[in-house]
Amino acid sequence: MKKIVSISCIVAVLMLLASCGSGDASSSEVEFYTDKGGENVGIMNSMSDKIKDDGGVGFKTVGYTEVTAYETTVQQSLDSDKAPGLFTWWSGDKLKKLVDNDLVVDLTKEWKDYYEKEGVNPSLADAFTIDGKVYAAPFSVLYNGILYNKHIFDKYNLEVPETWDDFIKVCDTLKANKIDPIGLKNDPWASFLWFQTLIASYDPDLYVGLTNGDIKYTDPEMKKVMKIWQKMIKKGYFGEPVDPASQIKMFSSDKSAMVYEPTVTSATLKKDYNMEPGKDFDVFVPPSMTANAKKVIFFEASPIVVSKESKQSADAKKVLQSFYKKDVQQIFVDEAGIINTDNTKSDDPVNGKFVKEAADANKYQLLVRYYEATPSEVVTVATDELWKFFYNPTDAMLDDTLNTIQKAADGAFK
């Protein structure tokens, strides 16, 4: 009987060890949460496979497509060891809140030792720097431009506008021919896109002062910008806002001539709508309203952060040590059009060319987009109020919009 018990105990112990071993194997992949779900999940898992093939630590992508649900899920887990090892977030004020609450890992050393050596632009670290330390690595750096349908432009003998007056003439011609000059998407957050664009085209310093609290939304110069937007809305330059997929479909089917989007959209237009970059569509930077002034390109530097409390924190840092290697990032370029390093190559004449061109400091001024550049409390109010103004662009609504956003700014910058 004692022998039987002993054997039973040995078997039980072996089973327990086997169970523990299989648990370790399943947890060896770092959980990587992202709000950029959809096809990016498969692409990112392919990147993980490449990292593992090269002997590195892999990751498992958990993708979300609904931003609010994603943000809530991540925030509820960050103060426990069940937090994902890696997750994508937003730069600016939202990243600062995580840093202030000691929830993310300092990656300053990793930037010098790994990311920059693999071709990540060192200047991008500024977008993730808080109090002199870098707390994130780039998931994607997206540059915004005006994509235009070349078939429509050719049909009506339109040229790429070099001045603001040229741009208005293009819009007038398109409207006269019953083509929506500018297609819009109805995402709740997207109301700020033309708001930021018009301010920066009018005066980049006005935009910078507005987002850091030095200039009030009720400033007379801001009212002038809103008047320009008001006139564009009333003249019908903007199509009815539709869901993002329909916006791109309308652009590809010659129903709208221009969309203001990240140039990475080029990959979607080619893959899903058979539009050839450079032949069927191209891109230009919004013209300045001031003669001889630099044009402004807005960019979104989406950060990857490491959860400080996660039990996967150490392995998460190892993932990022491999994430920017040339062969891994080339998958991102080829499959998603996302260009993060100088070591990769893009055959896309729209996206690849634009990313390189954006680095020309003599021609362009790069600015962080509104969503990340100003406090989230202000952004939340502004995106609601700007949609209200778009659908009811009266003088009274113009004043109400600016006054309401300024109240939020007063609280945020106090």
Quote the average pLDDT: 92
Overall tally of domains: 2
Q: How large, in whole angstroms, is the Cα Rg?
A: 24 Å
Number of distinct beta strands: 11
* CATH superfamily heading of the largest domain: Periplasmic binding protein-like II
The number of helices is 18
- Poorly predicted regions: 1-27
Strand content: 5-15%
Fraction of residues in helices?
40-55%
Going by helix content, strand content and strand pairing, the class is alpha/beta
How is the main sheet built? 9 strands, mixed
* General shape: globular
Please give the CATH class of the largest domain. Answer: Alpha Beta
Cα distance, first to last residue?
78 Å
Element string (H = helix, E = strand) = HEHEHEHHEEEHHEHHHHEHEEHHHEHHH
CATH topology value of the largest domain: D-Maltodextrin-Binding Protein, domain 2
CATH architecture of the largest domain: 3-Layer(aba) Sandwich
Keywords for this entry:
D-Maltodextrin-Binding Protein, domain 2; single chain; two-stranded antiparallel ribbon; 414 residues; disordered N terminus; alpha/beta; SBP_1_CS; Extracellular solute-binding protein; 15% strand; 9-stranded mixed sheet; 2 domains; 11 strands; SBP; globular
